[in-house]
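Appendix B, Record 12. Input sequence as logged:
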Amino acid sequence: MSKYILSPAAQKSLQQIRSYSLSNFGKQQTTLYLKKLRDRMQYLADQPARGTTRDDIKAGYYSHFEGAHTIYYRIRDTHIDIIDVLHQSMEPTRHL
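Logged structural output:
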């Protein structure tokens, strides 16, 4: 598989994470954290079954924690769709 596609919601969330992190933690920490998120997304694209099944949210959804955030995704034939990246304090059923 080894490919992931970000939904518009995931793109927006990553921009918000970047903005918040820059304001609160500085450029170096922001760069490192965003790299961790991207690396985790690539890991999930390479091994999509490693996430936790989240049929409680919607059939076919998976999630995986990274840092203070959770990556939500679906497995497709040729890639994974990153649905969104939510802070751990956010209730997924309200935001997905």
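Residues 4-95 form a domain with the YaeB-like fold fold (CATH 3.30.2310.20).
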